[in-house]
Amino acid sequence: TKDKNIGYIADFLTTIGIDLKEVRIVPDEEDEIVAALNALRARYDYLLTTGGIGPTHDDITADSVAKAFGVGISHHPEAVKLIEARVGKGNLNEARLRMARIPHGASLVINDVSGAPGFRIENVVVMAGVPAIMQSMLDAAAKDFRTGRKMLSVSIPLDVKEGDIADPLRAAQALYDDVLMGSYPKYADGKFSVDVVMRGRDMARIEEARASFLSALETAGTKGA
């Protein structure tokens, strides 16, 4: 099935000024999860995980996180209360209680959709895989993130082939290394075209880069803007 969480998280982080550096799909195998956790949490400011904290036997993310950090895991009293408040007193079974198992030392990440919480331990934020629940957890967790300036972007549609703009775009990128530039070719109605997207945190610099690129296109004799 198509993963809806990756795109949402990428867009969410962009709006609050955090760069998404890496996405990794990890199988439901404890050793693989532990290895990924230990590698990535040491490399990045934040590590966000989705999935694997549900009520079934193959939901092993919480146990894997506990193993990665070398801590125990048990039913968190507040997590039990949150789940009980949602399902009703007396309706807690072993499957539901499984969602209250939290690694020792972790803080809860509340969600307003299902009641069962995610958690954060150091720089690792563990969230549900169901998109609506994950989004609620991300809203809650992000309140404690160190954010930066919002990423801004400008799109330049051109009625030319991608190869026609490669050299001018390369030259513009060399001059403006603080502006990320990419080209995205399209083909429709028998015609080639390309969108050039420039991204950065300073709109003045983006506009300068745009002007430089378009000037280089004109000098090269390429038209289509």
Descriptive report:
- It is a single chain.
- The chain has two domains: 138 residues, Molybdenum Cofactor Biosythetic Enzyme, Chain A (3-Layer(aba) Sandwich); 68 residues, 2-Layer Sandwich (Alpha-Beta Plaits), CATH 3.30.70.
- It is of the alpha+beta class.
- 28% of the residues are buried.
- The chain has a four-stranded mixed β-sheet with strand order 1-6-5-4, sandwiched between helices. The protein has a three-stranded antiparallel β-sheet with strand order 7-9-8.
- It is elongated, with a radius of gyration of 23 Å.
- 41% of the residues lie in helices and 21% in strands.
- CATH homologous superfamily caption of the largest domain: MoaB/Mog-like domain
List low-confidence stretches: none
Q: Which percent bin holds the helix content?
A: 40-55%
At CATH level 2, the architecture of the largest domain is 3-Layer(aba) Sandwich
Q: Name the average pLDDT.
A: 93
- Rg calculated over all Cα atoms: 23 Å
Strand/helix succession: HHEHEHHEEEEHEHEEH
CATH class of the largest domain: Alpha Beta
CATH topology of the largest domain: Molybdenum Cofactor Biosythetic Enzyme, Chain A
